[in-house]
Amino acid sequence: MTRHTSREADAPVPVIAPRGDVDIEVVPTLQAQAGAALAEHGALILDAGGIDFADSSFLRLVLTLHDQGEFRIANPSIAVQRLFAVVGADAFLSIHPTVNAAREGHAG
To answer: What per-residue confidence (pLDDT) applies to 3?
Structure first.
């Protein structure tokens, strides 16, 4: 079930910035943090610049978050860019060059 929470336009959007390998061992913790942020704020920015490796469990999480609320990805690393390009997710995800651009909602 998709749940969208409204948020105040002036309210800050939380940022989560995982680092290193984001794989099946890390994703449950990231999912809990991201889910809580979306539930509380109705929006989330994932700063993906520090991700060195991401597997299909990360991709599944991103697609789930995309369906749950206002979800933006900022500063994707080369590894994340490649993953999104291979599956075509870069065509519909909200991807931004920086966290500030994501806050402003301007695509890169």
So the answer is: 36
Q: How far, in Å, are 15, 52, 69, 106 from residue 61 at the CA level?
A: 16, 16, 13, 23
| Torsion (CA) 93, 96, 98, 102 in degrees, nearest 10 | -80
For the chain, the three-class secondary structure string (H helix, E strand, C coil) is: CCCCCCCCCCCCCCEECCCEEECCCCHHHHHHHHHHHHHHHCEEEEECCCEEEECHHHHHHHHHHHHHCEEEEECCCHHHHHHHHHHCHHHCCCEECCHHHHHHCCCC
Looking at residue 15, its pLDDT comes to 98
Per the structure block, which two tokens stand in for 54? 């991401």
pTM surpassing 0.70? Answer: yes
